[in-house]
C-alpha cells in the first residue's frame, strides 16, 4: 500500500487542481441577500445549510484572515453533550447526531472518532453533582453514567487514581464523547457551500456596519462596501467588538484559552480524561500526540498568545494524572480567544437590530456546536427571523428577564 501511494503521488500525469475544492477568489458583488461575517466553522456551516436546504445562495462569507483560521483552528476538537441544563443537553445532543453523519453528508472524511469522555470526581459533592448530571443527560438522549473507581481503572489503566491530596472517587463517563478534524469540518462545509453558489471571501475584513432605520443596510470592508438583506455575526472572540459597530452591547467578555501538545508516543489513552479540580484535560490524538488543555486565562484579552505560567500549571496537573508524562517533550503551545457570557451559554438568535442575527458567546465549546448551530442559524435566516425552538433559550434578552441557562462548570476543566 505505501508503494502504491508513493507511485501515485510521483506520477507526472497526476494533476493537482487547486480550484477543485474551493473556487478562486472573486470580486465582491454590490449586494447579497445574506452576509455572514466570519469564515470559521459556524459561518461556513450556516452558509452550507442556507444553500443546500433552503435554496438561498446569494450569500457572502466575509473572513478577515483565512478559512477556519480563527478559533476553529485553535481548539482541541472535542465533541460532547454532557452539559448541566436540559436546554444545553438537548442542543448539543442534536449536534452529536449531526457530527456522526457529516462525513457521509460531505462525501469528505472529517475523521470523526467516538472515544468517550471521562470526567473525574475528587470530592463527595462532585459525585452528587455528577449523579444528577448523568440523569439529566440520559433523560434528553445522551449516553452518560456515573462509574466507580474499578470501572475507571479498566477504562484508563495508566491513570493515577490518587493525585496529590485529590483521590479519584468516581467518574462521569460520557460514551458520546468524540473528536474530529476541525479543519476538515470547516473545509467540508465550505466546499459544499461554494459548490452551490455561496461566495467565500478570505482576507476581507469588516470595518464597519451601516445601520439605517433599525436595520443593517450595508457592510463596509477593506475591499469596498456591499449592500445586504441581512447579516449573521459569527466571529467568536471578537463578538463584542463587531456588535458595537452595529450599535449595541453584548453581555460578553473575551478571555484567552490555551492548549499544548507533546511529542507523539505509542497509544496509551483512548478516552478523553478531564478533571475540573485539577483544571486540566488530556487526550491522545490518532498521531500519538498528547493534547493538554484547561480553563481560560483569568483576565480579559483579545490576544492568542501563549504564556509560561499557564504552561507550567497545565503540565503540573497533567503529570498529576499521568506521572510518566513528565518524561515527554512539549512540541507546541497555542491559544484562542473565547467569548464568555455570564451564564456560560451562547447568545443565539435576534439582536436589537432587526435584520442582524447573533451567533456568539460560545466560550470554550463552539466547535462541538458547529453542525447544529449552522442548521439553526440557517433556519432563523430563511424564516425571516422566526427563532427555532431549540435555540430560543439562548436569546440575548434572557439576561434582562433573569432566564439564564447556567452552564458554569460544565466544561472539561473549570472556568
Topology:
Blueprint: H1 2-10, E1 31-37, H2 41-54, E2 59-62, E3 78-79, H3 86-106, E4 113-114, E5 117-121, H4 124-139, E6 144-147, H5 149-155, E7 170-174, E8 178-179, H6 182-195, E9 199-201, E10 206-212, E11 215-221, E12 224-233, H7 239-246, E13 253-262, E14 272-275, E15 280-284, E16 290-293, H8 308-321, E17 330-340, E18 347-350, E19 356-360, H9 370-382
Parallel strand pairs: 1-2, 1-12, 2-9, 5-14, 12-19
Antiparallel strand pairs: 3-8, 4-8, 5-7, 6-7, 10-11, 11-12, 13-16, 13-17, 14-15, 15-16, 18-19
Q: How confident is the prediction overall: mean pLDDT? A: 93
| Number of alpha- plus pi-helical segments | 9
What is the terminal-to-terminal distance?
46 Å
Strand segment tally? 19
Q: Helix and strand succession?
A: HEHEEHEEHEHEEHEEEEHEEEEHEEEH
Radius of gyration, taken over Cα atoms and rounded to an integer in Å: 22 Å
